[in-house]
Amino acid sequence: MNGKKIAILIISIFWFVANNCATVPWKCVDGDACNAIKEGSVISQYGHKYNGGLKNGIPDGIGSVEFGTGRWFNIYINGYAIGSPIHGSAGKPGDRYEGGVGIDKYEDIQLNGKGTFFYKNGSKIEAIWKENKPEGKGKIFLANGKTLEGNFYDSGWICLTGDCKNGFGKRIYRNCATLEKGNFVKGELMKGVHVSNEYEFFDGEWVLEGKFKRFISGISRLGRKMDTIDRMRQRDNPKAQYTEVAKESIQCTEYID
To answer: Residue 12: which residues within 8 A CB-CB, separation 6 or more?
Structure first.
């Protein structure tokens, strides 16, 4: 095939993409997404939500499509995915990421390089990412407007004050998913407050038993139903008091200051 025929073929392919792919049945989800030229959310005729790069309201660039509780990443051009979808586990439905990415040996897209992770609740993290984890110096912008800055370690912790390895300190995990403050031994909280946002609150003492920690005394408020393991723990540790509460009453941000 000579050069002229190759050029005609390439032009024909681009003409087809431009005139047919643009008719992909996507519709707006969030406000002016259909006019967005960078990013947003749209939904397909099958009800699958797309989050990522957009061009004139059509998926274009790196993005993810939600299927049930899973997210599948791909590269899109004019509304169509290029190649096979790549399963990702960096976030949850409603979260969004802008920045450097890479592909590991399992062909999973990973967050690698400088980037910002936006959480559905309005918080975000600016950091250098490596294998989906923030590392080194970075910032956490909480949904309540508070900004925290420090060095990320162990997959997303930042020590806010004191000594969070062997001493008294206070640390936060990612976007305040968890907060711990009190006495630490070898990086483990042994006496103090542990808050998992809208899930669990502990104020008391723990002991190490091999590789596991056990809450032995103090107050525990659970923003969920007590299960069999909780009841066994309460039975075996009479000094530990477990109570069920509304999950909204357990807010990590209330214990930062």
So the answer is: none
Contact 45, 38 (CB under 8 A): no
Return the H-helix or E-strand segment holding 130.
strand 124-130
pLDDT in tens, 221-230: 999 999 998 8
Residue 229 CB-density burial (10 A; 0-12 exposed, 13-18 middle, 19+ buried)? exposed
Half-sphere exposure of 40 (CA within 13 A, CB side): 21
pTM here is 0.67
Assess contact for 168 and 182: CB atoms under 8 A: yes
Report the alpha-carbon distance of residue 145 to residue 110 in Å, rounded.
28
- Max Cα–Cα distance, the chain, nearest Å: 85
For 148-199, the pLDDT digits (tens) are 999 999 989 999 999 999 999 999 999 999 999 999 999 999 999 999 998 9
Listed residue (208, 191, 193) closest to 255, CA to CA: 193
Percent helix, percent strand, percent coil in the chain, to nearest 5: 15, 55, 30
Residue 172 CA to residue 189 CA, distance in Å, equals 12
Distance from C-alpha of 242 to C-alpha of 76, rounded to nearest angstrom: 49
Q: DSSP letters along 151-208, please?
A: EEETTTEEEEEE-SSSEEEEEEETTTTEEEEEEEETTEEEEEEEEETTTEEEEEEEEE
